[in-house]
Specification:
Blueprint (H helix, E strand, L loop, with lengths): L1 E5 L5 E5 L21 E2 L5 H12 L5 E2 H8 L7 H16 L12 E4 L2 E4 L7 H12 L4 H12 L14 H27 L3 H14 L4 H13 L3 H19 L5 H11 L15 H19 L6 H14 L3 H21 L2 H9 L13 H17 L6 H14 L7 H16 L2 H13 L8 H18 L2 H17 L3 H18 L3 H16 L3 H15 L5 H4 L2 H11 L13 H5 L13 H11 L3 H9 L10 H15 L2 H11 L19 H13 L3
Antiparallel strand pairs: 1-2, 2-3, 4-6, 5-6
Helix pairs in contact: 1-3, 4-5, 5-6, 6-7, 6-8, 6-19, 7-8, 8-9, 8-10, 9-10, 12-13, 13-14, 13-15, 14-15, 14-16, 15-16, 16-17, 16-18, 17-18, 18-19, 19-20, 20-21, 21-22, 22-23, 23-25, 27-28, 27-29, 28-29, 29-30, 29-31, 30-31
Length: about 700
């Protein structure tokens, strides 16, 4: 027997038999309880709150001080004792047969707090998440059964009695979003199986309750069309358009617009079993030719509308990668400068702010160009009329935050905060996504902020999925991939990589594969599979060539290989004679181009060639690393070299900077490379600093 926990509704627990997380041998009923399970008495609301808070932590330790803060807004004087009482009562309820004075096996004490060591298959929310992930790769019939079962585990809103608690808010939002996603994927499976009529009732109720989900409207219209109700399908699409325009002030996304055109044209590919493959490429080419011809004929060559239209094209061009991304950057700056020449601040604000292309890498590809864009944005902010729409001002501020990333300027974080505040105040989801991208780019004040960036990514995913902001949904998954990697949660990172790739395939976003391929190499490096990781890094680097991202490409492969060689350094607590190659790894080529990472690679390169004095001098001149995704990795490289030459000042600096990231994997927050646990580097630095001089 083992205890099972339910949080997809009121928090509860039952005594049941073990399950593996993918099947339900107990015969769980549709209320989420086990037909053969006995409820566990959890006593009062504080007891359930403690249990719920530990489940939210997903097997990690929650310090007692955090529990006190979460349980009480104004803690009583005996709050710590009360928490211990609640924990003791929960232990008796969860493990009633445990002999006295024997250690608990489920609700354990560890370090400064408590953790619930529940098996993955024993928490309904965790099983639900796994089921939805599994369904992505299953054939439609199996996916439908899996999703039907998983959705049946819901007994009400997640963590139902803790709707007002800040500690539950993000997890409730995440699970709620996942449930909506599962409902839509279940409908998609029914459509794939030719069961469009079965999908209509659920989708009709779904869009009524969640009217801002464009994918739900799309699926409902498609289901109606496939049941022979073409007029109803078009009416649904027009109802969706009216809601979006009147309530949010935004036009339907490309998916809804394309479906409406396809229904009007009775496109063959809408049928469940098309008689012949659609020739979408030919149709798209014809539409493009006609539209551009009409535009050139209708819109005067000097019209300001052409600048607005140009930026829209450049946004789409940027996400194609390669020469498209390079051209988008070049023509974007030209468009900004052309708008400034016209002396129209409103037009310039639109041209600058409309280029809201999501960015994931913290080093700009062209610093000089970025500085010119920031300058134009700042001038336009100063020139805007006081009565200008706040969205225009926020878009300029978000641009400043994005384009000033990596500069260390205080203006970047300030602009990010201001843009986010405006976006939240006017409740503009697209603008908020843009502002959150700026906030992410400025979220590197110190080491150890992976959890903070994970929260930004989680909000981006949920926000974008609700409002059909596909590119920002991809960005959110990539941010979470990075953050979960830093936190050594590779199953979680895998899920975000898969989600990003699925969206990229569906919406033709080729650059996403560049990042997920590098992540695959990181996975191999993190597990110590060095030869396979080296090969994977080589393949990933080849994909970067010509991708149009020099800020990412230059020096990255040599840096990744250098980190791979130092990911598992030998202990440094004792001075002993051994080959330097054992300490420093294979000898790197001194001529290797480490690009912008050369100052932090050079000391190790020199040490590998037995040039200790030069390495020590290089360390003496070493600047602090940029505060970006590779901050922890570069400090670890500096620390390794400092240990080898006994540079205590650099060791102390590295230790102080890395200490906040003690629970993370060095460099893994980049989603590209790693030097292993930061804690190991901190231990090596501490040991070296204790050595006698």
């Amino acid at each position: 027997m083992q205890v099972e926990f339910g949080v997809l509704g009121p928090v509860a627990a039952w005594n049941g038999v073990a399950r593996n997380g993918t099947e339900d041998p107990n015969g769980a009923d549709r209320n989420g309880t086990d037909a053969t399970g006995d409820p566990v008495a959890l006593k009062g609301p504080r007891h359930r709150a403690v249990l719920a808070r530990l489940i939210v932590a997903r097997r990690r330790v929650v310090p007692v001080a955090r529990l006190v803060d979460d349980l009480w807004g104004d803690p009583p004087g005996d709050a710590v004792g009360a928490v211990r009482t609640f924990v003791a009562a929960l232990r008796r309820a969860l493990e009633p047969e445990r002999p006295p004075r024997t250690p608990a096996r489920l609700l354990v004490t560890e370090g400064p707090g408590y953790a619930l060591r529940a098996a993955p298959g024993t928490v309904d929310a965790w099983r639900f998440e796994q089921a939805v992930t599994d369904a992505v790769t299953l054939p439609p019939q199996e996916a439908l059964g899996r999703l039907d079962e998983a959705l049946g585990w819901w007994r009400g809103p997640a963590y139902a009695e803790f709707t007002e608690e800040a500690w539950a808010r993000a997890e409730r939002s995440r699970l709620g979003e996942l449930r909506l996603h599962a409902v839509e994927r279940r409908a998609e499976a029914r459509l794939d199986l030719g069961r469009a009529a079965d999908a209509v009732p659920d989708l009709d109720a779904h869009v009524a309750e969640h009217p801002w989900r464009e994918d739900a409207w799309r699926l409902l219209a498609l289901a109606l069309y496939r049941t022979g109700r073409q007029g109803d399908a078009l009416a649904v699409l027009r109802r969706a358009r009216a809601l979006l325009v009147e309530q949010l002030g935004v036009d339907p996304g490309p998916g809804l617009r394309r479906l409406e055109a396809d229904i009007l044209g009775q496109a063959r590919h809408l049928d469940p079993a098309p008689a012949a493959p659609p020739r979408a490429g030919d149709a798209a080419e014809r539409v493009w030719a006609r539209a551009t011809t009409a535009y050139d004929r209708t819109v005067a060559s000097g019209a300001r509308a052409r600048l607005d239209s140009t930026v829209g094209l450049l946004r789409n061009l940027a996400v194609t990668g390669g020469s498209g991304l390079e051209a988008a950057r070049e023509h974007r700056l030209a468009a900004v400068e052309a708008a400034e020449e016209l002396g129209d601040a409103d037009l310039t604000a639109r041209v600058i702010g409309a280029y809201d292309v999501p960015a994931i890498w913290t080093r700009v590809d062209d610093p000089a160009q970025a500085a010119r864009v920031v300058g134009a944005a700042e001038r336009t902010l100063a020139a805007l009329r006081p009565d200008a729409h706040p969205a225009a001002r926020a878009r300029l501020l978000a641009t400043v935050a994005l384009e000033s990333r990596g500069t260390g300027s205080a203006r970047g974080p300030q602009a990010a905060r201001q843009a986010e505040e405006i976006a939240r105040r006017i409740e503009d989801p697209g603008l908020l996504a843009f502002a959150l991208n700026g906030r992410f780019m400025q979220a590197f004040d110190r080491a150890g902020l992976a959890a903070h960036r994970d929260a930004i990514g989680a909000e981006l995913v949920a926000l974008s999925a609700r409002h059909g902001l596909t590119t920002y949904e991809v960005l959110g998954h990539l941010i979470r991939l990075q953050a979960r990697s830093a936190l050594a949660d590779f199953p979680g990172a895998d899920g975000h990589a898969t989600a990003a790739e699925l969206l990229a395939d569906r919406h033709e976003l080729p650059l996403v594969g560049v990042f997920t391929q590098w992540y695959a190499a990181l996975r191999l490096a993190a597990t110590g599979e060095t030869p396979a990781a080296e090969a994977a890094y080589g393949e990933a680097a080849a994909r970067l060539e010509g991708a149009g991202m020099p800020g990412l490409e230059r020096g990255l492969l040599p840096l990744a290989l250098l980190c791979l060689r130092h990911a598992h350094p030998a202990p440094t607590g004792v001075r002993r004679a051994r080959p330097r190659s054992e300490l420093l790894g294979r000898t790197p080529d001194e001529a290797t181009d480490y690009g912008p990472y050369e100052p932090w690679a050079r000391p190790l390169v020199l040490l590998a060639r037995d040039r200790r004095a030069e390495a020590a001098e290089a360390l003496r001149l070493l600047p602090d690393p940029p505060r970006d995704l590779l901050l922890e990795a570069l400090w670890c490289l500096a620390g390794r070299a400092a240990i080898a030459v006994d540079d205590r000042e650099t060791m102390e600096r590295a230790h102080a900077e890395l200490a906040p990231a003690a629970g993370e994997l060095a460099g893994a927050g980049s989603g590209l490379l790693t030097l292993g646990p930061v804690a190991r580097h901190l231990d090596d630095l501490s040991t070296a600093l204790r050595r006698p001089r």
